[in-house]
Structures are given as structure tokens and as C-alpha cells.
Design brief:
The structure is a homodimer.
Chain A (H helix, E strand, L loop, with lengths): L4 H10 L7 H21 L3 H17 L6 H8 L2 H9 L35 E10 L9 E6 L20 E5 L5 E7 L4 E2 L5 H8 L5 E2 L2 E7 L6 E7 L18 E2 L2 E3 L2 H7 L5 E10 L3
Parallel strand pairs in A: 1-11, 8-9
Antiparallel strand pairs in A: 1-4, 2-3, 2-7, 5-6, 7-8, 10-11
Helix pairs in contact in A: 1-2
């Protein structure tokens, strides 16, 4: 009763004393301290508190089965990339953010299949490998791929014009740890700007663009799952990704190929673009 | 590109440089610093980040036209009371939290009306006044009242059994700044525990109870609006309010009256309970 700014925090933290899970207690204690510190430092007004409640509620209401606005909010505040940076500090290929579009399961596909179900865009072949950090091929590793189309939209953003699973595929690496599939070159694109996160970017005069990329989650038994991107080397916005996710090591040449023999090998016609991405997974 | 834990925060803050509204820039800078600091201190895992996203999304999805789970979350973390403490440090009656149930407009009522539309509960008369800090009556001040019923539920929680507006009333003080109305004695009650905030309380073994109270918002031209409670003096949980909102000055006797003449004055029968609450509003 009659708590002041400081004793109020003490009272809140005291209610966590009986929390059985020590990690939950630690998380809530740290979050509570920083929340109270931020509000105290800002001398937040009642109206600003109401606006914060309205904003967070709108972020929740904008999230549904195919859209995750809280992930987007975490992304544009650099929190997603911070979590990746903290947890990705191990051997193997560097990780980057999951992003908000991994909301649906990628359809299982065979090596060599095309993930381009609509036939438009610049033809592209992506090849790669999944190996242990000592170079041992990881036979049967799963490679989950998702990307936007040539106009910068994911299937879930355009249910009217893109069939479900367009731009997505779940592949299994062969006995030598290799994978390959056909696709189109993804475009750079704006993150969705029609929700509260878009309003936040507009209010801060930030651009909403991400450089072109293909999402990858690679997994193999006994290894740390890897969430990462292949970034398209000649894309704009590599130096100002709206979600701070670019790693130099992940920037990949999507080279134009005009050699008919090479095209024939992959079942495409010239000219096409070819990217190669070797993945190394850390041991669990 | 290739940002580390520290340069990542710098990059995020640099994107705020062009924000036209200096207060928005200040808020986002402070929130960004504390968010990043909390994640770094906790060494948050990817799975914990996912759980945080899932929790906040569930809080959003639980909020609708008659329920505000983000307000409830702010309440149980002591943030709402902190904002009140920061902003209520002026002359006049002390403020306390708004709470999550002020989602609908209170129906306009005449002085002396009853806000008890269902006829059950312990009859009660509440009288009071609205004055300036120098004691001048504030004729015509509005007094917005909302409270739960004898079982601890607000109208919006029980649309099947309580008519809209039960327990609510918007009154205008008379020429001498006085107000009075009939009601029932509110019960102590648990905050809603069927949503994610309830799950949080359960995981931390915190009880969800609030002491019995009547919500009040008093407003008059030229004065700072006041959001406060009358707490019922003999209620349980006055010392452990789940939302940390009790102020000693706001605890009010709800005295039993057995005097028929007094009952007749208010149009009730004996025994009834009578509470008196004098409000002073600070000058704007």
C-alpha cells in the first residue's frame, strides 16, 4: 500500500518469489526491471501508456495464421537479429533471422524440383551442400526453403494469385549431402507496411526494404538447426536491411549462365542464374 | 552488415535519426536500449524468443471490444500503477489504475439513480463531492462510476446474466459539487484468469485477487481528470492487490446503517451500507 516508484518495483519483484521455474523467474525479473526503468526514465504519460497499449493490441490483432506482426516488430527493432547473434555464436554457417513468413509448412519436394509454381520470373538454379564443421557430408539433412516471388511477395501474402507452397520446398540432401532445386530469383521487397509496424516505420521515416534473399532452415540429427538466408549479391539494400539481418558470409552470387550444356544438366534453358550455397552445421 | 551485439543496437538507434517527432524518437530509443539490454543480460534463447512472441500474440488475441488483456498485463507487472504514480504526483485526490474494464461508455444517470439493474446484492448508498483543491465545489463535474457486482463480475464479463451498463453510471455533480447514487457493495474478485495473463500468474504462483472497489473518473473543466478507486475498507486483499493499486487515502468505510430515517432520505430500506468519498481535483 502507498508504494512509490521504487518500492513499487520491489513489490512486483517480490510477487515472483514463489515462481517454481528459476529461468521464468529470471526472465520476468529482468523484464520487470527494464520495463519499470524505461517508464521511469521516460516519465511516460497516461496518454502515451494508452497509445502503447493500443499499438501492442493492434500488433496482436494483425497477427493471424499466415502473418506474424510481433515477429515483424521484433525484426525492425533488431531484437530478432540480437537473439540470432547471441545464439549463433558457434562453429558453422552463420544464422540470421527467421522472419515473419515461416507460418506454413513447406511442401516436401524432390531434389531438382521447381518451387516456382506460377512460371513467371527469372529462372534460377540453386545448388548447395550440408556438411558437418569437419566437412563430412550430412546425408539426408533437411533443407527447408522459402522465398518471395519476382515481385517481392510470399505465397501467403497473395492467396488469390499464388498457389499455397509457391516459393517453398522441404528437400532432403542426397548421400553426399548435396541439394539442388529450381526457382526464380527473389526480389528485394518492403516488409508489410499495411499494419502497425508499417505505421511505426513511417512515423520514423525508415524505409521498409529488405535485400533479396532465400530463407533456409537446415537440420540434421546430432547438429544444431540453422536458420539463415542466402542474400542475392547484386540486390539493393544489402547495406540497409530493414531488419538488420545481413551477414557478409551469407551474400551469394546469383551468376548469369549462358552455357547451354549447363542449362541442360539442370533441365532449364539459357539464360538462367545459378547460386551455390554450402552450409556447415555445428554439432549439438 | 556483420553487426555484433553492441553495434546492432547502434544500428537500430541510428535508423531513428530521421524521426520528426522528438518525443517518439526518445520513447523508441529508450525502449530499444532496454529491450536489447534485457535480451543481452538474459542470453535469450531462440525458443524463449518464440515463447515471448507466442505470449504477446495470445495477449493481443485475447483483447477485444470488451476485454483488454494488455492493460491487464500492464496491471499485474505494476506498470499501470507506475504510470499513475509518475503522473499523479500533484495536489488533490490520489489516482490509481484505470483497469481493463473501462471499455464501454457508462450510461448517463440522474443523481440518486441506482446502478444496480439486477436487484441482487447488499444495498449501498454512495455519496460524495467534487471540489477544487481550495475546497470550491465544482458544480457539474462529471463522475464516471463502474464496479463489479456482489459476485465480483463486471457487466461485460457476463453478457448473458447482466444487462449492459449494470454497475455503471455517468453522473453530474449538483450545484454544490455533490453526487450520490444507489448501488450494491462490490466484491473482491480475481482478475480474469482464463487468458495468457492468468497463465502467467499461475506459472508464478501469484494469486489473482483485487480488493473490493468502485472505479471513479472525475472530470471538470480547467482541472486534471482523476482516475481513481474507492476501496472498501473491510475487504480482503487490501495488502496484496494483484495490480498494486491500493492507496491508504482511497480506503473508504462502507458503514452499515440501521437508522430508518437515513434510509428514507436515500430511498432505500434498512439495513444498508453507506460510503462517502470526497474528491479534490488539481488545477490543469
Amino acid at each position: 500500500m502507498d508504494l512509490d516508484e521504487s518500492s513499487l518495483l520491489d513489490a512486483v519483484l517480490a510477487t515472483l518469489d514463489g515462481t517454481p521455474d528459476p529461468r521464468l523467474k529470471e526472465i520476468l525479473t529482468t523484464v520487470g526491471r527494464h520495463l519499470h526503468a524505461a517508464v521511469r526514465e521516460l516519465r511516460l504519460t497516461n496518454r502515451e501508456w494508452e497509445q502503447a497499449v493500443e499499438f501492442l493490441t493492434a500488433v496482436g490483432h494483425t497477427s493471424d495464421a499466415t502473418r506474424q506482426e510481433f515477429v515483424l516488430l521484433s525484426d525492425v527493432l533488431g531484437v530478432s537479429m540480437l537473439v540470432e547473434t547471441i545464439n549463433g555464436a558457434h562453429a558453422g554457417t552463420e544464422s540470421t533471422v527467421l522472419g515473419p513468413f515461416h507460418m506454413v509448412d513447406s511442401p516436401a519436394r524432390e531434389l531438382g524440383d521447381s518451387v516456382n509454381l506460377i512460371g513467371k520470373g527469372q529462372p534460377c538454379v540453386i545448388t548447395g551442400s550440408v556438411r558437418d564443421v569437419d566437412g563430412t557430408p550430412l546425408s539426408g539433412a533437411t533443407v527447408d526453403i522459402w522465398q518471395c516471388d519476382e515481385n517481392g511477395f510470399y505465397d501467403v501474402q497473395q492467396p488469390e494469385s499464388q498457389p499455397p507452397g509457391n516459393g517453398r520446398g522441404l528437400f532432403h540432401a542426397d548421400d553426399e549431402g548435396r541439394f539442388w532445386f529450381r526457382t526464380v530469383v527473389p526480389s528485394h521487397y518492403p516488409i508489410p507496411t499495411d499494419g502497425p509496424v508499417g505505421a511505426l516505420l513511417a512515423a520514423t521515416r525508415r524505409h521498409p526494404y529488405r535485400p533479396a534473399h532465400v530463407h533456409v532452415i537446415a537440420e540434421a540429427p546430432g547438429h544444431v538447426p540453422l536458420t539463415t538466408h542466402m542474400f542475392v549479391a547484386d540486390s539493393p539494400y544489402l547495406d540497409s536491411d530493414a531488419v538488420f539481418a545481413v551477414r557478409g558470409n551469407l551474400v551469394t552470387e546469383f551468376a548469369e549462365v549462358t552455357e547451354p550444356a549447363e542449362a541442360e544438366q539442370y533441365g532449364v534453358s539459357v539464360p538462367f542464374r545459378h547460386a551455390h550455397f554450402d552450409i556447415q552445421l555445428a554439432r549439438a
